[in-house]
């Protein structure tokens, strides 16, 4: 007998006369009023920067960086800077699948390219306003097919492991900028 | 990891004597966590969340065979290689195979308590693999050769001064380097490791059976990097970590974050379905090792099985007035604090973990903090009861309890003793024998009459 068989047999033996607990339904949450405003608030509380912009405004955000690593899903209109490898780029630009107001998070697909999301010190995430959900539950229930890796980013990389002092940019980007596109 | 829980009382006393700074550091950090948790709990209908989370976990645990098989099927469909491990040796076999086949020289590791149980680092080092703990706190204690002292903040027992000294000796940074400067040094060293490692190691906060999704929570980005840059990712998952449905993450991710650090969500959440697809960045191979290591025995235990609901958030450690005095090291096993005191006897044997259920005042703060309502105070009593039954408690305690029972059962004896005890010397009179106790406390003064006499006077006067 292998480990799998033995583990499953022991689980079944343990549960033989155990009353079975019911699985509760997911809650029915009221839709958040104005998820956009809540999203921007929570992002800021998480230490990130949030902007509600039109295409022109978002393009202006990119100015001032000498180059960037771009996620695959970033539309041509925003690829204004010289493209650099993510290991060297001062900026990573990603296109988010969706955003969540409740937690102030953007969701990034592995399909878009993980290095641009993680290696540069600053991460600019573009997300369409219509893709901002009120709650995490709505967002997860609405997902159609899962990428190899889905990252939820809710702020700059941080740690308080050194003497309980909060430090930003420990391994991932120390600065997260989110542009919500109108 | 070899358990040294038996030495808890001695080790706790030694630590307080020899490293008084630890109490200060741990108290500061845990009170900070605790304040944040309370604020975060107050923001949501927390009772409803806790009840729901408890119900989902109980459902999974009472259908564990079904969900394990479902998870295995889904993982395989996603291209993940699934392994089962009853013992650390089983887990080591998986690692050995990967290391040899892929010629692994360097591994980057995300923080994981289960890998501490399994002794993953010593095994890899014996195979000649350089292992880098990449969580900043874990990296610090790896440099010091210490085990983690807290489930979430492994290095909370260290003061800034100690870390400055460590980095000065190791990297030549100035003795007054700022936390930012120290973190930048660690970032440089570990970035190099991320970019060159062939193997990434992690645990998992959750494994969703419905979709075969591994969920991992963190604040630094090191887990995302460890599971994205190396060509092979091996995740160790305790069999109790399952969730039934993908959408259950909408409850468990925020609940765990609120309980652990008071955040609405961990800064980075990785939801991993499998290896990178055609043309994508990411690992070519993903392995999941489903680990028992004492968990099925705990599931079998009709009283203690509820402990398996644990999310490893550390909230009970932060709430515990006993843990706060010493941090986790004296507990002598991977899991410390209140959850360790009820989990360790289940995962090890009660004999090995015997003193831990006594490391509590039974104040109940751990239960109030627990996001899945594990009845820790009741379980502490269960384990104490069993310790007495198994004859692990000292024989004088048996004698004393028998005598106490005799006295409490007989009104005449009770009256005699309640009068007689008043004649005994008081603690403050026994100085200097009890100096440590009487210092800083007001003198004990028994009332002139026992309660039952006072009560009789009141009743008669009516």
UniProtKB/TrEMBL annotation, chain A:
Where does the record locate the signal sequence feature? none
Q: Where is the LUD domain?
A: 88-179
A Pfam family matched in the record: LUD_dom
In terms of superkingdom, the source organism counts as Bacteria
Which InterPro entries has this protein been placed in? Answer: FTHF_cligase-like_sf, LUD_dom, NagB/RpiA_transferase-like
Record-given protein name: L-lactate dehydrogenase complex protein LldG
TrEMBL record, chain B:
Q: Which domain of life is it from?
A: Bacteria
Organism name:
Thermus arciformis
Alphabetized Gene3D superfamilies for the sequence: Alpha-helical ferredoxin (1.10.1060.10), NagB/RpiA/CoA transferase-like (3.40.50.10420)
Coiled-coil annotation reads none
Domain 4Fe-4S ferredoxin-type, by residue range, is: 301-322
Q: Name one GO biological process term.
A: lactate metabolic process
Name of one Pfam family that matches: Fer4_8
Q: What is the protein named?
A: L-lactate dehydrogenase complex protein LldF
Q: Which UniProt keywords apply?
A: 4Fe-4S, Electron transport, Iron, Iron-sulfur, Metal-binding, Repeat, Transport
Q: Name one GO molecular function term.
A: metal ion binding
Recorded hits in PANTHER family, A to Z, give: LACTATE UTILIZATION PROTEIN B
């Amino acid at each position: 007998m292998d480990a799998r068989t033995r583990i499953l047999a022991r689980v079944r033996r343990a549960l033989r006369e155990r009353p079975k607990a019911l699985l509760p339904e997911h809650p029915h949450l009221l839709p958040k009023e104005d998820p956009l405003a809540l999203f921007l608030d929570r992002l800021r509380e998480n230490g990130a920067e949030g902007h509600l912009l039109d295409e022109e405004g978002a393009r202006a955000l990119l100015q001032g960086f000498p180059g960037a690593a771009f996620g695959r899903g970033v539309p041509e209109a925003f690829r204004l800077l010289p493209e650099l490898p993510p290991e060297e780029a001062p900026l990573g630009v990603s296109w988010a699948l969706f955003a969540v107001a409740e937690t102030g998070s953007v969701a990034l697909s592995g399909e878009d390219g993980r290095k641009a999301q993680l290696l540069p010190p600053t991460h600019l995430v573009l997300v369409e306003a219509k893709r901002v959900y009120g709650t995490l539950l709505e967002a997860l229930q609405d997902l159609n097919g899962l990428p190899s890796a889905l990252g939820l980013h809710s702020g700059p990389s941080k740690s308080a492991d050194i003497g309980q002092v909060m430090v930003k940019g420990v391994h991932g980007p120390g600065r997260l900028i989110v542009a919500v596109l109108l | 990891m070899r358990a040294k829980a038996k030495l808890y009382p001695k080790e706790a006393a030694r630590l307080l004597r020899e490293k008084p700074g630890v109490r200060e550091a741990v108290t500061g950090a845990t009170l900070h966590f605790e304040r944040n948790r309370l604020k975060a709990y107050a923001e949501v209908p927390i009772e409803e969340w806790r009840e729901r989370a408890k119900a989902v976990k109980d459902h999974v645990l009472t259908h564990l065979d079904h969900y394990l098989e479902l998870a295995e099927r889904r993982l395989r469909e996603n291209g993940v290689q699934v392994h089962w491990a009853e013992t650390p040796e089983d887990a080591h076999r998986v690692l050995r195979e990967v290391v040899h086949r892929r010629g692994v020289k360097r591994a980057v590791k995300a923080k994981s308590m289960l890998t501490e149980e399994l002794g993953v680092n010593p095994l890899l080092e014996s195979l000649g693999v350089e292992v880098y703990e990449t969580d900043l706190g874990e990296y610090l204690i790896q440099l010091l050769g210490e085990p983690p002292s807290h489930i979430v903040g492994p290095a909370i027992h260290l003061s800034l001064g100690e870390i400055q000294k460590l980095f000065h000796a190791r990297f030549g940074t100035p003795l007054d380097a700022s936390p930012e400067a120290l973190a930048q040094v660690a970032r440089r060293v570990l970035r190099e490791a991320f970019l060159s490692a062939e193997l990434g190691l992690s645990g998992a906060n959750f494994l969703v059976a419905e979709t075969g999704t591994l969920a991992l929570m963190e604040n630094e980005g090191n887990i995302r990097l460890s599971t994205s840059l190396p060509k092979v990712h091996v995740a160790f998952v305790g069999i109790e970590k399952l969730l039934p449905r993908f959408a259950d993450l909408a409850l468990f991710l925020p609940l765990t974050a609120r309980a652990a650090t008071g955040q609405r969500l961990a800064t980075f959440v990785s939801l991993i379905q499998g290896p990178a697809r055609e043309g994508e960045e990411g690992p070519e191979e993903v392995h999941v090792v489903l680990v028992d290591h004492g968990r099925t025995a705990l599931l079998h235990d009709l009283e203690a099985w509820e402990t398996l609901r644990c999310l490893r958030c550390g909230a009970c450690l932060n709430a515990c007035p006993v843990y706060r005095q010493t941090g986790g090291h004296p507990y002598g096993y991977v899991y410390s604090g209140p959850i360790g005191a009820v989990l360790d006897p289940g995962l090890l044997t009660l004999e090995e973990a015997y003193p831990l259920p006594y490391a509590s005042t039974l104040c109940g703060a751990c239960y109030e903090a627990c996001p899945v309502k594990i009845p820790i105070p009741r379980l502490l009593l269960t384990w104490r009861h069993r310790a007495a039954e198994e004859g692990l408690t000292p024989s004088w305690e048996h004698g004393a309890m028998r005598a106490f029972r005799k006295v409490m059962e007989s009104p005449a004896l009770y009256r005699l003793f309640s009068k007689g005890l008043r004649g005994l010397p008081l603690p403050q009179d026994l100085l200097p024998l009890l100096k440590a106790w009487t210092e800083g406390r007001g003198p004990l003064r028994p009332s002139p009459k026992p309660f039952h006499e006072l009560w009789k006077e009141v009743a008669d006067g009516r």
